[in-house]
Amino acid sequence: MPDINTKAFVFNNHADGLYTLVTDMITYIQQHAQVSEATTARLKMIMVELLTNALKHANQSATAIKVELTGDKVSIQKKDSGNGLAILCGDNLLEWPLPGVHHAGEIITIYSNGDATLKANLKDNCTLQFFIEETENADPVDINTLAEHFGLMIITRACDAFTYHFDVDTCSNNFIVSIAL
Amino acid sequence: MILVTNIYKDALIAAIQVKEANLTVSDGFKDEMTALIDKGNKYIVVNFEGVIYVDSSFLGALVSSLKYAIANQAEIVVAGLNKDVSGLFQLIRLDKAFKIYLSATEAAERKS
């Protein structure tokens, strides 16, 4: 069994505490694992965006962050009891938990950004996993069609797996990101 | 004020004054960029020297400014990105949308 190291952090949901917390979490990971410079950069991007998401949507005074190192993988979980995830897909606003139960296997398109489309695979009415579909041989970037919302795209590109889960028992949002070290 | 500007040759260099380019300053940044474009500046160098990180909100404001610039026959380039910020531009392919220079002076001189 690989060693498991876990630490809980608390984000005060103030922007001026954001980068200090990112630095603290990076230090914790580096104390327990060898982390390359490139992976450290990706971890910072993920952390900044998870905490930015908390600033925008948490609607509470603090957000719980858990960092877990297992073998050669690190997972970061952000948990809050703010509003459920809401994504505008075309003209449809999807809000979690989704109504009904027959969503497993559905794929939704969130937005396109030139040569890439952010999508999500619905596992059930409470869980989705983000992924990116690249467009091969895409035309040169059309600035006017570039998206202006990059948060989910940044996290999805920077990590190996990115999942959202709405916990109906605790009415909490759980964003779980993992990345190989 | 988020930007301090100075003219260098035929470029306007707009230096970001905050270390953390995040959602608390993104709207103000966009407003200041809009004002600079409205004043008729045609080549604006956004200097990130001193910025330690950039979040998605600020990038959104930067892209929005670029769209406004293009609609007004102006150009925005970026300079002085640290390694992390440069990596972020590459990660989400914004290096295809913006010309990136090592320094603001280099950005201004390339235009001349």
Give the N-to-C terminal Cα separation of chain B. 28 Å
* Rg of chain A (C-alpha, Å): 17 Å
Uncertain segments of chain B are none
What integer is the average pLDDT of chain A?
90
What percent of residues of chain B adopt helix (DSSP H or I)? 40-55%
Low-confidence stretches of chain A: none
- In helices, the fraction of residues of chain A equals 10-25%
What is the percentage of strand-forming residues of chain A? 35-45%
Shape of chain A: globular
How many distinct helices of chain B? 4
Biggest sheet record of chain A: 8 strands, antiparallel
Structural class of chain A: alpha+beta
Largest sheet of chain B: 5 strands, mixed
| Subunit arrangement of the protein | heterodimer
Count all strands of chain A and give the number.
10
Question: Would you mind describing this structure in some detail?
Answer:
The complex is a heterodimer of chains A (181) and B (112). Chain A has 3 helices and 10 strands; from the N terminus they run βααβββββββαββ. Chain A has 181 residues and is of the alpha+beta class. In chain A, the strands form 2 sheets. Chain A has an 8-stranded antiparallel β-sheet with strand order 1-2-3-10-9-8-7-6, covered by helices on one side. In chain A, strand 7 and strand 8 form a beta hairpin. The longest helix of chain A is centred in the N-terminal third of the chain and has 21 residues, at 37-57. Chain A is globular, with a radius of gyration of 17 Å. In chain A, 31% of the residues are buried. With 112 residues, chain B is an alpha/beta fold. Chain B contains 4 helices and 7 strands; from the N terminus they run βββαββαβαβα. In chain B, the strands form 2 sheets. Chain B has a 5-stranded mixed β-sheet with strand order 1-2-4-6-7. In chain B, strands 3-5 form a two-stranded parallel ribbon. In chain B, helix 1 (23-38) packs parallel to helix 2. Chain A binds chain B through residues 15, 18-19, 22, 38, 41-42, 44-45, 48-49, 52, 55-56, 113-116, 140-141, 143-144, 146-151, 153-154, 157-158, and chain B through 20, 22-24, 52-53, 55-57, 59-61, 63-64, 66-67, 70, 83-84, 87-88, 91-93, 96-97.
